[in-house]
Amino acid sequence: MDKYIDKVEKSMKLTEVIKELRELNKSVEHNGMMLNTPTLDIEECCFLSALECFQTMVPQLKARQKKIQQKVVRNLKSKLLRSVVSCNREEGKNKACQGCDSYPLKDSREFVKQLESLLQKALNRLV
Amino acid sequence: IKMVGSWLFLLISLQGYEAPSTPNVNCLFINLDYVNCTWSEQGSPEVNYTFFHKRFIKGNMEECTTYLQEKSFAVGCRLSYDKSDRFRTLTTKLVHQNNMKLYPPVNLSVEMNKDPELNLYWNNSRNTLCIESEVRYRINNNKWQTSTPSKEQKYAVPSPLKSSRYKFQVRARVNSICGESKFWSEWSQPIQWDSMKGNNITDTSGSSMSVWKTVLSLVGTMTLFIVACMLVYRERERLRFILIPIVPNPGKNLEDLLDKDTVEAWLHISKDVCFQPNFTEIACPVREYRLVPQTGSISESESNLSIPTDQSDCLSTCSSSASTFPATSENEQAGIE
Question: Where is each Fibronectin type-III domain found (chain B) (predicted)?
Fold first, then answer.
């Protein structure tokens, strides 16, 4: 039963972040700014590292509504969310993963889209 | 043709989902300046694909930086050209997201509550929060009314009408939060609710009926065919007579006749010919008459008149018997003298 509640909580959290991200996207000025964007073709254990990369880049977006931007960053840092994307394997948790700078540069629109896809991927794995 | 048709139907219904297949990529070296890789050979794409390529077997896939557009969709990618490229293996990858279609929902059931409230329940093909469902219903075969999609597996009809017939159908897809599937599933098997009877009538008409119709017609056709074959086989001799008429050959019948020489042989052997083997000749009494000269005129006239009646009877009996014997010539000779 605990596992079920845990699952429901996590999925609700993920849903919340995805919705907030969409709100944020509406208020961002997509003026062609380029950001390092992690790809989705990454190893399972590098999920968390990719999320961290995204989380450090979000504040760089030019958003008119700062409140929602801060909320998104806060949620991406949350323990609950991190537990969703964490790796099961003990070995090489953050070892073999790419550094944030090594990911290709994409414009802000692509960046937000990729982050949403990453969160959706996590949600599909969960439910 | 019906056999093929029914097999095709089975194959199609067994398919879980239909996914438009990823198009083929064709790459062309343009004037030793660059490489154009396109995927619009089989028609303009209706979705945006992501293109990747790599020049070396070992190495990472690189995403396309210069997409070629047509009607607001990406149809190809322009790659930079290297002199050795024509002698290398170029590996390409075309990726499309959310090309997905679910099975339709199953186990539909309707029940009327105390309120009164008409509730529809169903099961989605997968038990996950990622699926949203859409309900449509019609009252007494009027226009379909569609609900807003929701993640519940239950739907309540607002203020149901009395003495009406409701027909329900449900379909599902992956919701937007989880990465929306491009296609809705097919509509589920319909279910009917008749407020008069207060019953759950699962409408079996539709695809299941058409399956039955196909099967029955197939069985019927095969049965008829087998029966026809059997009839033809039984009556094959008679049919042969009708279709290929026999040419009469009198030679066969008269073969034994023509072989024999004597008349006696004819009489005894041939039965079909019109000779009477039991012919007995009736003996006719013959009398000789002489003219005695007493007085010239009277005696002549008397002798002329005296024709024996017996002889005329004889003659008649002989000629009446069915024969073509040359016996009559003897009688004639006797009469004159």
Answer: 104-198
pTM: predicted TM-score of the whole model, two decimal places: 0.55
One fold for both B26-96 and B106-194?
A: yes
Residue A34's SS3 state is strand
**How far separated are the first and last CA of chain B, in Å rounded?**
97
B128: chain A residues, CB-CB within 8 Å: 127
Identify whether the C-beta of residue A69 lies closer than 8 Å to the C-beta of residue A55. Answer: no
**Dist CA B307 CA B295 (whole Å):** 20
Q: CATH number of the domain at B26-96, out of 2.40.10.10, 2.60.40.10, 1.20.1530.20, 3.30.565.10? A: 2.60.40.10
Q: Quick one: which H or E segment has residue B297?
A: helix B296-305
Q: Do B177 and A104 touch (CB under 8 A)?
A: no
pLDDT at B277: 62
**Closest CA–CA distance from residue B62 to any residue of chain A (Å):** 10
Q: What is the pLDDT of residues B16-73, one digit of tens each?
A: 444 456 788 999 998 888 999 999 888 887 778 888 898 877 777 888 889 998 888 8
Chain B contact present for A88, CB below 8 A = no
DSSP B114-179: SSS-EEEEEE-SS--TTEEEEEEEEETT---EEPPPBS-SEEEESSPPSS-EEEEEEEEEE-STTT
Provide the number of CB pairs (under 8 Å) joining chain A to chain B. 22
For chain A, which residues score pLDDT lower than 70? 85-86, 88-95
